[in-house]
Amino acid sequence: MPKLRGEAFWRETLRSAHYVVAPMVDQSELAWRLLSRRHGAQLCYTPMLHAQVFLRDANYRRENLYGEACPEDRPLIVQFCANDPEVFVQAALLAQDYCDAIDLNLGCPQMIAKRGHYGAFLQEEWDLLQRMILLANEKLSVPITCKIRIFPEIDKTVKYAQMLEKAGCQLLTVHGRTKEQKGPLAGVASWEHIQAVRKAVSIPVFANGNIQCLSDVEECIRKTGVHGVMTAEGNLHNPALFEGRNPLVWEMAEEYLEIVQKYPCPLSYVRAHLFKLWHHTLQVYQQLREELAKVKTLEGIVDVNRELKLRCQEEIANQKEGEKPKEGLPFFHWICQPYIRPGPKERCKENGTRGTEKGVRGKRALEEDEDGNSELLSKNKQKKKLRNPNKSFDPSLKPKYAKCDQCGNPKGNKCVFNMCRGCCKKRAFKETADCPGHGLLFKTKYEKSLLWQSSQTGIRNPEISQRDVDVGETAILKEADDT
After folding, report:
1. Lowest-confidence region among 91-100, 210-219, 276-285, 335-344
2. How many CB atoms lie within 10 A of CB 53?
């Protein structure tokens, strides 16, 4: 049977899915997907999987995809990050029997993606992407899809989408933010870009960004004309988002924990989900937040969840008539609701700080204060401050190091070549020279080896023979290994 493409693939294989749960690293595991499907999600993605690791590690495959068969977990799309056509396709071939499509991640904006050279950091390499998708489209028995981020320019974003479609992409998810828009600088996603892509391609398009409740989903479909809407954080804070409900947090938490009992996953995943579900409540009960962070067993997490439920029920029982939610929340903290990520300006206000000349402070600037004020430090720095109260994080007090002439790392204070140890070692070895500052004595060792050779032959002033040179080189190489 030939594989379905484009609209036919979306209608028949994906069952005309409108409500989609995004691929989320360590968060869209089987247990969470099943919870989301029970409450309105029509299509789910696996977490982003690393193609190279998936290809070589059988345990990684088993833990992330080859676990217990679950007929309810369909339709399902497996997402990979990759930057090599052969590796991507070989990994996809191992996964295609367990899913309905393979997705290529071209949207991850995190630093790990930059270091690994994948995700959104491939969006300028159109030739490579064409080769990856063409090969996958040719070799796989299931369709190939892509999830992308936009360029600042609408025209370039449209051309990008058209290139992917021409290469063989059968469905496109467009996150309406650039790769620079992340964390506190995320801002609002551009539905205008998504609408332009939808009009320019003939394959199905999913929209991603600005989705916190069901009315956002409906408005996005109406404004952009997309086939479906994908959400990540909105789903994590309210798994019943696609049902248009805002249930009690403990109802969702208890149901999720029951599913985890049947389909186990790492404890870190479970803990992270409860931190999201109970986000607003944990701002009120800080002690329980600490307990949730420290607990080491699933039973312990269940106990913390039970205690949070009891605290909230007690609060409800003592609630005064007409009392309204605090902290500007639309609902009381024990009800599933969106978490609106504050932008840089709001964070500055929360921390009582001034912005830069443009009124925006970078993430790092938010963590540091010129006087080392612990209220403005990150949690890791605050822990270091507790261990060492005299420690200062004032950048102006950090020692200034002279840079290596070769690579820019700090140079050795007494290096004769004005280099770091690594560069100095290479040069001293190449030139058979000494650097007392770094304890490198290639020249001295070489001369000693020649003197020793002279004493062995009984000749006071011998000409240097090839054997002498060999002995000297052996001594230099030994010195290089020792250092």
Report:
1. 335-344
2. 15
String of DSSP letters for 82-126:
-S-HHHHHHHHHHHGGGSSEEEEEE---SHHHHHHT-GGGGTT-H
Longest CA span, the chain: 108
The residue ranges of DSSP E strands in 99-234, in sequence order, are 101-106, 144-149, 172-175, 205-208, 228-231
Structure tokens at 94: 């191992």
Angle at 410 between CA 405 and CA 416, to 5 degrees: 55
Return phi, psi of residue 210, to 5°.
Answer: 70, 25
Between helix 154-167 and helix 126-139 the angle, nearest 10°, is 30
Which residue do the tokens 């995004």 mark? 22
Please give the positions annotated as active site.
Answer: 108
Look up residue 384 and give its two tokens. Answer: 């270091």
For 260, the token pair is: 């985890």
Q: CA angle, corner 143, sides to 141 and 146, nearest 5?
A: 140
What is the CATH code of the structural domain delimited by 6-246? 3.20.20.70
Distance from C-alpha of 11 to C-alpha of 8, rounded to nearest angstrom: 5
Buried-state track 246-276, b at ≥16 Cβ within 10 A, e below 16: bebbbebbebbbebbeebbbeeebbbbbbeb
Instruction: Tokens for 284, please give them.
Output: 């009120």
Q: What is the pTM (predicted TM-score) of this model?
A: 0.73
**Residue 255 to residue 82: CA distance in whole angstroms:** 35
Tens-place pLDDT, residues 424-438: 998 999 899 999 989
Residue 78 contacts residue 49 (beta carbons within 8 Å): yes
Task: Spell out the residues 6+ positions from residue 412 whose beta carbon is closer than 8 angstroms to its own.
Answer: 419, 420, 421, 424, 435, 437, 438
Pairing of strands 101-106, 76-81: parallel
Q: How far is CA 253 from the centre of its chain?
A: 24
Residue 315's pLDDT band (cuts 50, 70, 90): very high
Rounded to whole angstroms, the Cα distance separating 408 from 23 reads 39
What is the CA angle 283-289-291, rounded to 5?
160
How far apart CA 479 and CA 109 sit, in angstroms, is: 45
- Dist CA 354 CA 352 (whole Å): 7
In the predicted model, is pLDDT for residue 16 greater than 60?
A: yes
Q: 41 and 235 in contact (C-beta within 8 Å)?
A: yes
Which residues are registered as beta bridge partners of 205?
172
What is d(CA 281, CA 249) in angstroms, rounded to the nearest whole number? 9
